[in-house]
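thread: overnight batch results

M.L. [08:02]
morning all. the overnight job finished for the chain we discussed friday. pasting input first so we're all looking at the same thing
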Amino acid sequence: MADPSGALVLRTVGLRKHFGGVQAVNGVDLAVPEGDLRAIIGPNGAGKTTLFNLITGDLPHDSGQIFFRGAEVSGLPPQALCRRGLARTFQVTSIFRRLTALENVQTALLTHHRRHLDIFRPARRLYRDEAMILLDRVGLGAQAAKPSGIMSHGDQRRLELALALASEPQLLMLDEPTAGMAPRERHEIMALAAAIAADARLTIVFTEHDMDVVFAVARRISVLHQGGVIAEGTPLEVRGDPEVQRVYLGHRSKTAH
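M.L. [08:03]
and the structure it wrote out:
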């Protein structure tokens, strides 16, 4: 089915998912235009990661529709969505810890180009230049030969970003990309992601708990509460929304004291 709002990179309509008696995602409507840098925020348990998993095909939805670049993709598995141009990262880093940074990116490129089953050419020789370009792009060129398992947590996050970029995505979904990072590193990696998005005309949707990062980077923000969207707008509009302050921002400021 075609989406009448075909200019949008991502659109969800009435998306729902329940686990037993818990409505984790409750009728979510999202509209993300090309080039957007969209933050999805909300209290713990608001449904952010579940929403991500529905959009990326990692979980089946109960009802509703998902459109990607004008075509309905509801129910497609992650690998099919990746081939269409939708990539994601997870809260927990998913790298091959025994491989070097370069070998990790080469592996991602081999998979993207469907050469991972090519038994007639040594894999170490394939896509080295392309892998180095991606490592340089995320600031890891000097660590290409370093085993990824001994890299700092922040550098592992950068490597994961390079792995996602290897699939040449049009939409990149980052699930808490700064989790476990120091405040300075959080701003650095999100500024890096924003710069890459602008350079490659890439659309990014991300979840994040650090509100300083969200308000500094996001162009628009969608706020989830109890599985539904309660507010959406620019950072200035969301910051001043009374309902957002009541259920999220105000709660966070109180618990911080």
